[in-house]
Structure of Catalase:
Amino acid sequence: MGVKERVGKTSDTRVNEEKIEKDTINEKISSLTYHTESAAEEFLTTNQGTRINDNQNSLKAGERGPTLLEDFLLREKITHFDHERIPERVVHARGAAAHGYFQVYESMAKYTKAKFLTDPSEKTPVFVRFSTVAGSRGSSDLARDVRGFAVKFYTKEGNYDLVGNNMPVFFIQDAIKFPDFVHAVKPEPHNEIPQASSAHDTFWDFISLAPESMHMIMWLMSDRAIPRSFRMIEGFGVHTFRLINEDGESVFVKFHWKPLLGVHSVVWEEAQMISGKDPDFHRRDLWEAIEKGAFPEWELGVQIVPEEDEHKYEFDLLDPTKIIPEELVPVQRIGKMTLNRNPDNFFAETEQVAFHPGNVVPGIDFTNDPLLQGRLFSYIDTQLLRLGGPNFHEIPINRPIAPVHNNQRDGHMRQTINRGKASYQPDTIKGGYPIQAKAAEGGFTSYTERIEVNKIRGKSRSFFDHFSQAALFYNSQSDVEKKHLTDALSFELGKVERVEIRQRMVGLLTQVDETLATNVADALGLPVPRQPEYPMNHIIPADGDPKEYQPVKVKQSIKKSEALSMANTIKNTIKTRQIAILAADGVDEASISQMKSALEAEGAQTAIIAPKLGYIKSATGKEIKVDQSFLTASSVLFDAVYVPGGAKSSASLKENAKALQFIYEAYRHYKAIAMDDDSGLLKASYPGNKMLSDTLKETDLAAKGIIVNAHAKGATSNAKDFIKAIAQHRFWNR
Ligand code: HDD
């Protein structure tokens, strides 16, 4: 019997083969990156290719005897296993990634010569890794944290990496402070507590001594730090970069990613619960959406600032703690990115991918942002350690699709077998090739920038306004968002043990907003100081004059910016939203099937949740398959809840503590709820809640996202109202 007959194909292998065959867009990289181990048709071998006959028993002196050193099968297997782990990323250790493509809408040749931004017919393959920052590889997805949003474009002119975050600013202005910042936010070194959380003394100690962080702190304390999904976050390149066109002209640019599903978050209590119920919530969400064909999409946005406007604004374009308000420079949406394929192997792709802000292509260039300048060193350096040597660009996921020819040679794990005698340039032995490319041939030329300055350790006065944009962010939030931000600060600082750190933070908050500072101080049982007090001598150079380092306030032209509030995001789709249908024996089968198909027609996904797995029996005796039981499902993992009709089913849910808890949590987390036949279920789920105990009119309840007794109206109208409510995401008016 041949191998094929003995083994048969596993479904996994089939799926992979189909994927690789079908994948036309990624074909270019697939051919380079896949060593196709079609498991179904090959023999098990050692790494030397020797076929293995017994993978179950080690070689022993007698069946009960000691294992022999001679056993090369055992030694090879164990040795490889012993070396399976590599250092995790020092920041952004936990992540999830996907393949896809990017396509520009119209040529951007006016601004840049980068080919992937000038040819609308070109689909450029991308690999995108999302991440949290502070936690270790095994930490929860739902930590309050910044999310990394790193995109590798495999362009024909080489790899371009846009290594951004879901927040448009950063904590510090100069890379020299990065190691201190990261030491402060990571778990405290004596006991490695807390994991994946900024709510501890060292983080807030550092922040309270870094007034430039206050704008970023507003973002971090907002709901942006607890996203509903990676698919629903914005992305930002943070720094100002340059675009260069064919004529060598430069403009400044800020990059944005705008998710087509809108920007949505969970609430803090939910985030904490999800961390227990499903720490892989975001990873799973991305993976499953792509598996189901609901491909996440983002538009690439640019804010373009002409060279001559460099000094036009009340902030410095080179300061990474500042945004350019969209009211000043609108975001032009220039192309779309679609993620359409999950990685085949987490380690080979998501773990080994190496991003670097210094990977640019002709047409894109850097600015003198001092944070960016430091990053240009850090990323290569860290990959050398993490990926074990200088040849990490040869790891399949990191290989460009553009051909690579140079005289770099050797080193750990070299894959390329370079032929020939001469490995230097200039040479005549191999005819002078590879040769340098003229700019017209795609050779990278750095933008010629005139700099006439003193060499100096210091920073520009234009970097000293730390609070104006923090206030802009705060003032742009809705009342609910302001409340969440206040609660988040109260929570985080409430976990800080040293009173003097809390006090310093309240002092800094007074510079952002008096009410914010007063409310946080109240929660912490602290007085509100007139002005912030911190030991200036610690945060300025040893010989610096404290007077010269006082923050300044520059008059702002923009007081409020719509784009900063998630309240203004897209709320017109329920695509990929997860809807729980709670049911038990005696349920009305028609109301389930009608609602299910109405929701699914809009792109939502449904799951029937019942007291136990298996099947439930409808009122007419029909068997309905259960997707999850109350034991394994949880309200926090869903976007909305539907309870179909059927008196017996409702009565049994009313007796089921877990069903009641499910509805209670959906209510508390402001999610849309629909019920065909309430029969007191809602009231029972939240005894003592005033709103539910008052007999509110249906329309009042509907305004709060609760659609009741819709059966009377017929299932279709119920579904319509419910769909509208789910698209609203949350009902903060409860
Ligand atoms: Fe960084 C990883 C984003 C400042 C040093 N960074 C890393 C990743 C993202 C960012 C998304 C994960 C990439 C991946 O998925 O593999 N980093 C940012 C942004 C910053 C920033 C948006 C500010 C605008 N980073 C920053 C500074 C330094 C670093 C100032 C050091 C001077 N970052 C690193 C690093 C990491 C990294 C140590 C860790 C793992 C890695 O690079 O590959 O080099």
About this structure: Residues 89-92, 95, 129, 131, 148, 150, 163-165, 170, 175, 178, 238-239, 320, 353, 355, 371, 374-375, 378-379, 382-383 surround HDD (CB under 6 Å).
